[in-house]
Amino acid sequence: MPGPDLLSSQGLRLDGRRPNELRRIQCKLGVFTQPDGSAYLEQGNTKVLAAVYGPHQAAKSKSLQDSVVVNCQYSMATFSTGERKNRPRGDRKSQEMSMHLRQALMAAIKTELYPRSQIDIYVEVLQADGGAYCTSVNAATLALIDAGIPIKAYVIACTASLAWKDGEPEPLVDVSHVEEAAGGVVLTVASMPSTGAIGLIEMSHRLHMDYFDTVLSRAMQGCKDIEVILDKVVREHLAEGWTKSDDAITI
Amino acid sequence: MTSHVKIRLASERVNHSVTTNNDLPRFYTPGEVVTGMEDFMRGHGTYAVDDSLKAAVAGVMQKVNKLICIRPRKNRYVGEIGDVIVGRVLEVQQRRWKVDTNSRLDSVLQLSAVNLPGGELRRRSAEDEQMMRKHLQEGDLISAEVQSVFSDGSLSLHTRSLKYGKLGQGILIKVFPSYIKRRKNHFHHLPCGISVIIGNNGYIWITPAGQTNVVEGDDDEMAAVELQTVSRSDRDTMARVRNCIMALAASKMMLDDTSIMFAYEESLKYDDVKDLLDPEAMLDVAFLTQHRINYVVEE
């Protein structure tokens, strides 16, 4: 199965990364004052804003007696891709993305705590350079944490692909747009790395079963690596807002 | 029309942090094991898996005997009985009003829990149910106290005191409820001639001191106070107090009468009130206030 040439003879990828190397991650929590929680996340050139409202009173028609209603909205900015294009919110692609986001996040949110309430999660992709879904999930997780909504663990999403080097399969982590467009398989996993649970898994092409495990484990390793980075940022954010006058003394 | 508009580069943004001390507490993040022992009780912000207790939110631990809670840096308002709140009427229903109090579920103000204008006693008649909209309309702001908390967490309010009731002219500020310091008194008359109501739910009401928020009188008198003009100097002071509170909130400082008053005094060196909207000025005011608070605490 000779796939596209994603690895150079030195074993480096098209953008100069090693196969197990993530793109650079930069993020910030609490970027807005209006929503209850918000986050901005960059993974390489993929840039995403997430905002969380709630939990607040659910609309009567949607309200559930025993759990919270999670409402996700994924949208892409007009200028997010190479081709400038108006993207209406309700189109098929963003609807599907919203559903997938909801599925991944519902796995972590402790929904039983907030009956008759609703949580709104809005995600806006400012620049899409591969892995927009993953970055959206990660940004939404940060926004939920910023909003103080109880979640079981970090939900982290990561992609992995498969390349060939000297006839040997070599999985690639955190696939960029160029590698996606080259036509290789892309496996997307949303998981809770600290428990090992998988909230969502999706594959773009066919892949021989023999290689699936290696690709999956590379994606899971990517999730773990991202979690470490995000956890550090969350701690820094908490420390930054810490003032002496706080009355967090144990009673 | 020319106006003063400043658009900054992201790299030139001001960091509002005024943190000075290095003795940070231990922070927990979601999924982190708080304790592996079984003999602790699970409180807010935690959950139990197998025999360990894990954090569900990012924050600091609070321990009361065997009960372990993790308190997040900010969350929605969680009401407690006796809290003073400022809220907005959302809906007029059968014998009750629905009030937005920035909490998880809409709060309820029962018709039986209000004092009617003029201090007259309520006759339980169909008539006064029809008069409800005259008393409080959709969009009206009220101050109230939390009377009880229902089992699902929603709040029942009451305004059975002269302190509470419909709010007239003033400014409403919304901050995160965790920035409000719990105090014995949340109604303050500042020496600068301004009254503030610091709602526990993060809604702060600023009003000129002459305007008592509750009017004991008939509808005509109420309407007269509603339409009374507020003098220019009063409005300036109100705007200054508002900008000071925004400066403190931007720096994530706790709000109470002392910190607001300190910030107001520090802000007086800026002659023009609108100068306080500059991020540098906001940081300066917050920093000086923090310094004074630290000084007072050390005394």
Automatic annotation (TrEMBL), chain A:
InterPro entries: ExoRNase_PH_dom1, ExoRNase_PH_dom2, ExoRNase_PH_dom2_sf, PNPase/RNase_PH_dom_sf, Ribosomal_Su5_D2-typ_SF, RNase_PH. The keyword Cytoplasm applies. SUPFAM superfamilies: Ribonuclease PH domain 2-like, Ribosomal protein S5 domain 2-like. One of its GO terms (biological process) is rRNA catabolic process. It is found in: Cytoplasm; Nucleus, Nucleolus. Its main location: cytoplasm. GO terms for molecular function: RNA binding. GO terms for cellular component: cytoplasmic exosome (RNase complex); nuclear exosome (RNase complex); nucleolus. Keywords: Cytoplasm, Exosome. Residues 21-150, 154-221 form the Exoribonuclease phosphorolytic domain. Gene3D superfamilies: GHMP Kinase, N-terminal domain. Belongs to the RNase PH family. Component of the RNA exosome complex. Non-catalytic component of the RNA exosome complex which has 3'->5' exoribonuclease activity and participates in a multitude of cellular RNA processing and degradation events. This is Putative exosome complex component RRP41. It comes from Mythimna separata (Oriental armyworm).
TrEMBL record, chain B:
Residues 82-160 form the S1 motif domain. GO terms for molecular function: RNA binding. One of its GO terms (biological process) is poly(A)-dependent snoRNA 3'-end processing. InterPro entries: Exosome_cplx_N_dom (IPR025721), Exosome_RNA_bind1/RRP40/RRP4 (IPR026699), KH_dom_type_1 (IPR004088), KH_dom_type_1_sf (IPR036612), NA-bd_OB-fold (IPR012340), S1_domain (IPR003029), S1_RRP4 (IPR048565). Keywords: Exosome, Nucleus, RNA-binding, rRNA processing. One of its GO terms (cellular component) is cytoplasmic exosome (RNase complex). PROSITE patterns: S1 (PS50126). Transmembrane segments: none annotated. It is found in: Nucleus. Belongs to the RRP4 family. This is S1 motif domain-containing protein. It comes from Mythimna separata.
